[in-house]
Amino acid sequence: GQVLYSIAEETERGAFVGNIAKDLGIDAATLSARKFRMITGSSKQYFNINASTGALTVNEPIDREQLCELKSACVLNYELVLENPLELYRMEFKVLDINDNSPSFPLSEYHINVPEFLSPGARFTLPNARDLDEGTNSVQNYTLSPDEHFHLEMQTRGDGSNYPELVLKKALDREQQAAHRLVLTAKDGGNPPKSGDVPIIVIVLDTNDNAPEFEHSVYRASILENSPSGTLVVKVHATDLDEGPNGEVRYSFSNTTSADLQQMFSIHPHTGEVTVNGVLAVQRPLLEMLIEARDSGAFGMSSTAKLLVEITDVNNHGPEITITSLSSPIPEDAVPGTVIALLSVMDKDPGENGKVTCQIPDNLPFQLKPSIESYYSLVTSGLLDRELISGYNITITATDMGSPPITTQKTLWVQISDVNDNPPIFSNDTFDVFVEENNPLGAFLYQVSASDPDVGENGRVSYMLRNSTVAGSALASLLSVSLANGSIYAKRAFDFEQLRSFHFQVEAKDNGSPALSAAITVNVYISDQNDNAPAILYPTTQNGSIAVEVVPRLADEDYLVTKIVADDEDNAENAWLSYHLAHSSDSTLFRLAPHSGELRTTRSMRSTDFLKHKVVVVVQDHGDPPLSSTVTVGILLADTLPQALPDFDDSGEPLPLLNATNIYLIVSLACVSFIFAVFLLFLAIVRL
């Protein structure tokens, strides 16, 4: 009274399983007469029995993972009941697994923090993959992408299950590589095998394993013995490759530096600047100090550098500079060699301390030429350009030969006068202007601006449009420009659907003599406004009629009834369309995809459903405010296309026989018949 069958999951519908009559020793011809029936606790009927032959076939494919989830054995129990006499047979169907699932990990990415001080051999547990299949079709092994610092080992728990571990095989160094990206792969034992991957990100945490390093082991500096307090002597700098507190460096004098030197000088703990802290009352010409740099780690590491400071004696008289003549302003087109000023330089000190050298900065278009004893001439040595530099502060530096030398400076202001040697200049070769369509007349579009580095009339700029045509029209009929400030105005409204962009040139001219000019190209881009409603392309209607779609009476769920196709002449979001059901004769029967416009059934058709349905679809754009159009679709449930379509008019009243269109047709037919009769009569008369 019991039979056991084995069947692989996902076996296709109609596949032969066995012959229940033969396997149970029942006459197949009596099955129908004995009112056989199969009883099961499953929600689906997975098997059928042929009443004539007793053949047992697959009625519905079986998904073992969905049916039995994580059970190791998947069995379906059925009971076969026969009457006359009453008999009960038990049938068991063992569902065999196939490799139809790939291993997968719970998360899309895993992060592991590893301190860089760990020694090789450190272990880190990796995530297990899950495979819904059973036996050899489940996860069998793991692999790790090649990496010189890590490898993979498998471990076994107390219950016999395996899990992967990440093992450190080479010491890490955060300063060389702060992160390692690995890929863990899980493979099952199916044929063919399937696999799943997950990224493993290893973040290397810093430890204080680097001491600060100075840029130089020895720093040298020289200062005058009368340097005031706060004078910068030198700036030392050390770097630490660690990060966070381990890499924060603080500076101080070493304990081996004498106390009197630590009183004469101070060092900033963060910047490393060594400055004078008091009077330099020393007899030694060379001072030696040790500077320590220490990081802020838990066990601070340090290094030292030597600082040598030379104290130089001073000279008590400086040179005196006297300007005897000066010509200013000078024109910018002055030729090289033009004399600007005459000056004398004197120093009251005798000997080497009284000998003076005089100079000006090398980056100026001037030079000093020695004249008679103690006199110098300041002359031009290059071309001048007032637009680049309108005047020069010329610093004359006189230095004596004392030890240390004393330097005196005197500054001359030389002004440069203008000539018209520069045309107007626009900041760009082109400008892009964006304007919305349907703009008001006289709307401000943009203001072009050109600069002229000249001054006065040479630098006063006026603007005008260069003659050109746009879409067959003169530019002056579209735009106007302010002569004084370059403001551009629209003289008519633009239409995005007719003209999307155009370009023109604006000329800028100065008032110099002769006048100089320049031009700029302005690109005008007309942006769209939502001034066009969506147009329904399909389904099409004529004279206000309703488009009719025929749907099989027993159509399945998600059956495609029709697709609403629409277009919008606007652009961007003004042309982005969405579809909505405004009305449906049966709201439970149809649904509309808001983006594709596909009208589908929400459930399978029933024999009790009405044969005629009507839906109203609204197509709306995303403009501000949005515009919309509607279309009415009649839906007829029929297995074949009828010869005459039913009336979908909501009013239910018959259309009038003599409407305006019918009257026009009757009159036209009568006129044609009359003309044809006259023509026949004319032919008869001519023949006679």
Automatic annotation (TrEMBL):
A GO cellular component entry from the record: plasma membrane
Subcellular location(s) of the protein: Cell membrane
A Pfam entry, by short name: Cadherin
Protein name: PCDC1 protein
TM regions (residue ranges): 663-686
GO MF annotation list: calcium ion binding
CDD domains reported for this sequence: Cadherin_repeat
InterPro entries from the UniProt entry: Cadherin-like_dom (IPR002126), Cadherin-like_sf (IPR015919), Cadherin_CS (IPR020894), Cadherin_N (IPR013164), Protocadherin/Cadherin-CA (IPR050174)
Alphabetically ordered keywords of this record: Calcium, Cell adhesion, Cell membrane, Glycoprotein, Membrane, Repeat, Signal, Transmembrane, Transmembrane helix
Entry function: Potential calcium-dependent cell-adhesion protein. May be involved in the establishment and maintenance of specific neuronal connections in the brain.
Limits of the Cadherin domain: 6-105, 106-214, 215-321, 322-426, 427-536, 561-648
SUPFAM superfamilies the UniProt entry points to: Cadherin-like (SSF49313)
Cited Gene3D superfamilies: Cadherins (2.60.40.60)
GO biological process: homophilic cell adhesion via plasma membrane adhesion molecules
Topological type in the membrane: Single-pass type I membrane protein
